[in-house]
Design brief:
mainly alpha, Globin-like, 6 helices, globular
Length: 147
């Protein structure tokens, strides 16, 4: 992994967990609206997504906020996400699109939060994206090796 997350940002994320959890469904609903509006080319990647995809992401966002300093307990869930990303052909290049959409949705929803919170969440997103991209790369290489 090349992206690190600072102790300061970990504390900000943990302290914002209840705020984000309360607003997570609104944030993730808005995030998908922004994502599909700004980047219509990714919509087909979600063709088989469940109707409650925004709630799955909301739950993941909340769990991540609470457990950001204990990512190891998240590894099985992250592996499921990484495998699903491979199945649906999500690539590393899609992560910046999701980041833009998520951060815009957070800013629109949590209007009164300060820049420290948004900066911490950007760092947290980059950190988690780096973890997932690494897992996906490893899984893809294993698939190639086993072919």
């Amino acid at each position: 992994m090349s992206v690190e997350i600072s102790k300061k940002n970990i504390n900000i994320i943990k302290n914002s967990a209840s705020l984000v959890t309360r607003n997570a469904p609104k944030i993730t609903t808005k995030m998908y609206e922004i994502l599909f509006s700004e980047y219509p080319q990714v919509k087909p990647l979600f063709a088989d997504a469940p109707a409650d995809q925004h709630m799955k992401l909301a739950d993941t966002l909340s769990a991540y906020a609470v457990n950001i300093d204990r990512l190891n307990i998240f590894k099985p869930a992250l592996m499921v996400i990484a495998k699903r990303h491979i199945e649906t052909d999500i690539k590393a290049g899609h992560y910046p699109m999701v980041k833009y959409s998520l951060m815009k949705a957070m800013r629109d929803t949590l209007k009164h939060a300060d820049d420290d919170l948004f900066n911490a969440w950007e760092n947290a997103y980059d950190y988690l994206a780096d973890v997932l991209i690494s897992m996906e790369k490893e899984l893809r290489s294993l698939k190639i090796d086993n072919s």
